[in-house]
C-alpha cells in the first residue's frame, strides 16, 4: 500500500518536473530556474515523508492548524532532512503566530493588517526562540478585485510593500503571487499578472519572486516569468473530500 503510494507520488513528481522543464524550454528560459513547490494540503504527513524520500525539499501548505501539526510530525519522523514549508493559503490574522512558527514564506499576504499581524508574530517567535530567519512575504495580487479569491489590486501593492519594509528585522519582501481567477483564460490572466509584476519590480528590483501557476496552468505561468509553480493535484492526485 505504502509502496504503491510512493510510486504514485514518484510518477506524479516526475511528470510535473517534465512539464516544468518543457515549459522552461519552450519559453527560452534557463532550465531549473522555476521552483516546483509541491502542495501537500489535505494529504497526510506520511505523504510528505514519501516526498522527502523522493528528494523534494520545498512544500506548500494552506491550512492552519493542520499544517503546523503535520509538519511537526514530519520533522519528528525525519529529523535529519532539511526542508522548507511555505504557506500558500489565506491566513487569518489570529493564526499569524502559529504560521510564523513553521513557514519560510507566506505567498498569500493580501492586506496591510496581515502584514502587521505577521510582522508582530515573527518578532514574538524570534524573541521566544521559535525561529531565527525573517519571514519571506509575497503579496498576493488580485486581477479582478474579487474579495472571495483575495489579493490586492495593483493600486494597493506599493503601500503593502512599504508596510513590509517597516518590519525590517522580521519580514522580507520577496515578490508577488497570483491565483488566476476563474472566468479568465489562463493565458490572458498570466499575461495580465506578468505586466503588473513588471511594473512592481521596476520599483522593487529586490522583490523578483513571482509565484504563479498551478496544476492546470503552469505552462502559461512559466511562459510569463513564474519563478515558483505551486502544484498539488498533478502530483498528489485528487484531494480527499473533507467534511466541513
Ligand atoms: C491548492 C492550491 C494550489 C495547488 O492547486 P492544484 O490545482 O491542486 O495544483 C496552488 N495554489 C494555491 C494558493 C492553492 O491553494
Automatic annotation (TrEMBL):
The keyword Manganese does not apply. It comes from the Bacteria. Its cofactor is pyridoxal 5'-phosphate. The modification N6-(pyridoxal phosphate)lysine is found at residue 41. Pfam families: Ala_racemase_N. Gene3D superfamilies: Alanine racemase. Residues 31-240 form the Alanine racemase N-terminal domain. GO terms for molecular function: pyridoxal phosphate binding. Keywords: Pyridoxal phosphate. Belongs to the pyridoxal phosphate-binding protein YggS/PROSC family. NCBIfam families: YggS family pyridoxal phosphate-dependent enzyme (TIGR00044). This is Alanine racemase N-terminal domain-containing protein.
Amino acid at each position: 500500500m505504502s509502496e504503491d503510494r510512493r510510486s504514485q507520488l514518484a510518477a506524479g513528481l516526475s511528470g510535473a518536473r517534465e512539464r516544468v522543464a518543457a515549459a522552461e524550454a519552450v519559453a527560452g528560459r534557463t532550465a531549473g530556474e522555476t521552483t516546483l513547490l509541491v502542495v501537500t494540503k489535505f494529504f497526510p504527513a506520511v505523504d510528505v515523508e514519501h516526498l522527502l524520500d523522493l528528494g523534494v525539499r520545498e512544500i506548500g501548505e494552506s491550512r492552519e492548524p493542520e499544517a503546523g501539526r503535520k509538519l511537526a510530525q514530519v520533522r519528528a519522523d525525519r529529523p535529519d532532512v532539511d526542508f522548507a514549508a511555505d504557506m500558500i493559503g489565506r491566513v487569518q490574522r489570529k493564526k499569524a503566530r502559529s504560521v510564523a512558527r513553521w513557514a519560510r514564506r507566506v505567498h498569500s499576504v493580501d492586506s496591510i493588517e496581515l502584514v502587521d499581524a505577521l510582522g508582530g508574530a515573527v518578532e514574538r517567535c524570534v524573541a521566544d526562540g521559535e525561529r531565527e530567519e525573517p519571514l519571506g512575504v509575497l503579496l498576493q495580487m488580485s486581477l479582478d478585485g474579487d474579495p472571495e479569491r483575495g489579493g490586492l489590486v495593483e493600486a494597493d501593492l506599493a503601500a503593502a510593500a512599504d508596510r513590509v519594509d517597516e518590519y525590517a528585522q522580521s519580514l522580507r519582501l520577496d515578490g508577488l503571487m497570483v491565483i488566476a481567477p476563474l472566468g479568465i483564460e489562463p493565458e490572458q490572466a498570466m499575461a495580465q499578472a506578468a505586466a503588473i509584476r513588471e511594473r512592481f519590480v521596476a520599483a522593487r528590483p529586490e522583490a523578483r519572486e513571482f509565484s504563479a501557476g498551478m496544476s492546470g496552468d503552469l505552462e502559461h505561468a512559466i511562459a510569463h516569468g513564474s519563478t515558483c509553480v505551486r502544484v498539488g493535484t498533478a502530483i498528489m492526485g485528487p484531494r480527499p473530500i473533507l467534511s466541513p
